[in-house]
Amino acid sequence: MTLMDFYRQQGMVRPEVELLSATGLSPNVTQARMAYRMDGEGNELVAGWEHAYILRRSDGWRVSLT
What pLDDT is stored for residue 48 in this prediction? Predict the structure, then answer.
């Protein structure tokens, strides 16, 4: 199950996420800023927020800090 599948199960008709920016902090560390929007029936906004993640690369990119 993906995060967007979870939101759909909670009644969000159209969950969306958009990458706002990605900034390399070092060769194996990146900061990613994301914008989330959750729409319900009739496309009304239920919730919207921005979130920043610090990603670290070892065997693949993984969230290190939120």
Answer: 94
